[in-house]
Amino acid sequence: MATMKAVRFHEYGGPEVLKYEDAPKPEPAPGELLIRVHATSVNPVDWKVREGHMKGMMNYTLPLIPGWDVSGVVEAAGPGTATKPGAEVYSKPDLSRNGTYAEYVVAKESEVAAKPKSIDHITAASIPLAGLTAYQALYDAANLSAGQKLLIHGAAGGVGTFAIQLAKLRGAYIIATASKTNHDFLKALGANECIDYNSTKFEDVVRDADVILDTITGETMERSWACLRKNGILISILEPPKPEKAAAHGVRCHHTFVQSSGAELAELAKLVDSGKLKPVIEKVYPLSEARAAQESNAQGHTRGKIVLRVV
């Protein structure tokens, strides 16, 4: 059996369970592409899966390769595909299968799009999961439109940095919560106002928001309901909001659990190549240092994304 280098875990647990080792090289089935991974990136879902938080949602078989962002080159194509070997692509593969902390990954052709031409693989790998989450939350779920007031919690993170830029393109008025050290950075991305969560309670200053994008949940979500206008919408990308809570406040709610979409990745690529969307990368680690990368991401203060270089 052909092998490849990958990062896997054989049991759920802390970052110490991650092992950089040989693993079976996957083969593409009909409708699938084998991608030579050039880069992947770290998202909170990676270490949450590793810790076992997704066991009730996904029927994983261990050992598991985490990571669900990839930018790379098509190595081989399964039957029934139109993409040719040698194509530069990027993708957010299916979350239910082995991921992208590896030299190779298999993805359905429908999950794959041509990599943005204007950026390298390192930069492209930072986009899929976080970019699709922001796109699906604001464009698909909220149908955000010009003049609407949007409150983004955790705006300096991976999803938040994409959300600010996508909201600006729709002409929304953007209020971002973040530590004061990130305010100038977020305003440069397109935020109209910034709230320092360390010194100001956002619910004391935000009223009649049309949309709230919550990347934090917990007590942040509970404090957010009162900030919405009647029939406004709270969108959470983590814990599903309770419809009865929304109804009690006369508002709506939605849980955005990111879906793979080659078509929407193609739309994001157009925005990148036109200069309207710029990924933010805090640090790049080699694949062999995935443990350190996950430990850094789990601290919760990443500005933009952390990327793993494979090639």
Tally of strands: 15
How many structural domains does the protein architecture include? 2
Overall 3D form: globular
CATH architecture of the largest domain: Alpha-Beta Complex
User: Can you tell me the CATH superfamily of the largest domain?
Assistant: Medium-chain alcohol dehydrogenases, catalytic domain
Arithmetic mean pLDDT: 98
| Major β-sheet annotation | 7 strands, mixed
Question: What features would you describe in this structure?
Answer:
The chain has 311 residues and is an alpha/beta fold. It folds into 2 domains: 3-127 and 279-309, Alpha-Beta Complex (Quinone Oxidoreductase, Chain A, domain 1), CATH 3.90.180.10; 130-255, Rossmann fold, CATH 3.40.50. Helix content is 26%, strand content 29%. Strands 3, 4, 5, 6, 7, 14 and 15 form a 7-stranded mixed β-sheet that branches. A 6-stranded parallel β-sheet has the order 10-9-8-11-12-13. Strands 1-2 form a two-stranded antiparallel ribbon. Strand 11 (209-214), helix 7 (219-224) and strand 12 form a beta-alpha-beta unit. Helix 3 (128-141) crosses helix 4 (158-169).
Summarize the structure.
The chain has helices at 44-51, 121-124, 128-141, 158-169, 183-189, 202-205, 219-224, 243-248, 262-273, 290-298, and strands spanning 3-9, 18-24, 32-42, 70-77, 88-91, 104-108, 112-114, 149-153, 173-178, 193-196, 209-214, 228-236, 252-255, 281-286, 305-309. The chain is of the alpha/beta class.
